[in-house]
Amino acid sequence: MISRMRPLILLSNDDSVKASGLNALIEMLSPFGDLFVVAPDVPRSGASHALTVTTPITVDKIRESESLTVYACSGTPTDCVKVAMSCLLPRQPDLMVSGINHGSNSSVSVIYSGTMGAAIEAAMLGMPAMGFSLCDHSLNADFSASVKYGKIIVQEALTNGIPKGIALNVNIPALPAGKIKGIKVCRQNKGSWNEDFIMKPNPVTGEKLYWLTGYYHNEESGAEGTDETALSEGYISIVPTHFDLTAYGVIEEMKRFEEL
Amino acid sequence: MISRMRPLILLSNDDSVKASGLNALIEMLSPFGDLFVVAPDVPRSGASHALTVTTPITVDKIRESESLTVYACSGTPTDCVKVAMSCLLPRQPDLMVSGINHGSNSSVSVIYSGTMGAAIEAAMLGMPAMGFSLCDHSLNADFSASVKYGKIIVQEALTNGIPKGIALNVNIPALPAGKIKGIKVCRQNKGSWNEDFIMKPNPVTGEKLYWLTGYYHNEESGAEGTDETALSEGYISIVPTHFDLTAYGVIEEMKRFEEL
After folding, report:
1. Which ranges in chain B belong to alpha helices (H)?
2. Which of A108, A88, A138, A130 lies closest to A48, judged by CA?
3. Residue A19 belongs to some domain of the structure
4. In angstroms, rounded to a whole number, what is the distance separating the alpha carbons of residues A124 and B48?
5. Contact residues, chain A, for B113 at CB < 8 Å
6. Which of A61, A186, A246, A255 to mutate to probe the B interface, most B CBs <10 Å?
7. Under a CB-based contact definition with an 8 Å cutoff, are residues A89 and A49 in contact?
8. What is the ipTM of this complex?
9. Is residue A251 part of a domain?
10. Residue B105 lies in a domain
11. What is the pLDDT along chain B (260 residues), one digit of tens a residue?
């Protein structure tokens, strides 16, 4: 039974309902209100802001207690937020939180991130929203520092709000809580993922299979004010993100296309 | 055989190698250079900037002539650009063009668009890039005006360049060429897609199936300088997009999170 008195918080992620990062997020948020989880049924890392448009999606309620409801959804993280809002939630949530992702979503990784896709979709639908990512890809990562600092960040967002249309991209360094120096509000670091696909033949048919791999190239290593720099110095980074992709700085220069 | 003398242009889309919009794009670009297409093997609309990370992808060369090479790829539009750059192209292309999408990618639709996902990925990898979308979803849409104006835009981009890290989001109204008033360089219109899923039971099992639908809500109808306004007035809209999601305008306000 979802209370009308306590805050209602929508949760999602891209690592699936089975991810230990989601359990850590539930632990982080349970002091603050009633939790409503709609998360992918299987891992959908790298889903970005994708939608499922050519097939229907399904949802399956897998847990329900007084203050926690959990649905597994066959769609993307963005689908999870949309179907929660359209069909599943009893009312508009007070907050949406995505994560805790197994692995960093700093710098340009935010573009590919399903964790942040869900948070940005929530911001598009008018909710205060944030995504948490721990800079540790391992399945058994230690989320205790993330939970500790996450509670502080969520408390502040619930008490004093965050601007409409903004989703916070929160990344936590893979350090014990005692080694984390604090929080820095940052801009997105300039960098790129340079891809090397590993080609391995299908062992049965011989067909060429390309597996995505790649390495991150930091184009402004040590630059002041970026999320990468904050993380490398032992701080939690918060980048306020929005969904207006317009490159305002080049509009004047591009006006020459109007003369064609 | 790809020439070293003529420009090399990489093409992709999200409607698949079979889409008539891709044939229109080939017609548009063939006067300018050698064309190298890597596009999804089946439609992947709404793919946004998604990557395929849990399975390998495959590529299949389906056409090769003197100035046109076509690969069908099992991955997303972003995968297509990445695998083209890593494994398939003989050299760095001079331009990347995505589309022509069957349907508008103006306003916030750019966030969900696989067409623009591919173009933005190309910009991230250092190429001048643009995506074309015709505001007509039909399979048999008339692309002749898009081809005519697209040639003018591509000629300008090849001659005078576009800034590094920028992908142009070009939307063309569904009008005959003679009715199009010209080109406007715009910002992304404020609006949102408000979802209504249609729930229909699976006719065999009875399981609830949710089909995505929804309607666009224009939050600033008629506002000056937006792509929606330009399109509604009969202009082609060009929004220069980038991949820095930082909401710079709220960083100072958010600095209060550093005091926690």
Report:
1. 20-29, 77-83, 109-112, 114-124, 144-160, 227-232, 251-254
2. A108
3. yes
4. 15
5. none
6. A246
7. no
8. 0.96
9. yes
10. yes
11. 556 689 999 999 999 999 999 999 999 999 999 999 999 999 999 999 999 999 999 999 999 998 999 999 999 999 999 999 999 999 999 999 999 999 999 999 999 999 999 999 999 999 999 999 999 998 889 999 999 999 999 999 999 999 999 999 999 999 999 999 999 999 999 999 987 899 999 999 999 999 999 899 999 999 999 999 999 999 999 999 999 999 999 999 999 999 98
* Residue A86 with chain B: CB contacts under 8 Å: 195-197
Query: Nearest 5°: CA angle at B157, between B152 and B159?
Result: 95
Domain that holds residue A108: 8-188+221-259
| Residues from chain B contacting residue A107 (CB–CB below 8 Å) | none
The Cα–Cα gap between B150 and B100 comes to 10
* pTM for the whole structure: 0.96
**CATH code, B147:** 3.40.1210.10
CB count in 10 Å sphere of residue B89: 16
Nearest neighbour of A82 by CB, restricted to B108, B190, B195: B195
In a domain, A213, yes or no: no
- Domain count across chain B: 1
User: What is the maximal distance between C-alpha atoms in chain A?
Assistant: 63
Pairing of strands A235-241, A215-218: unpaired
Per-residue tokens: A127: 């909710």
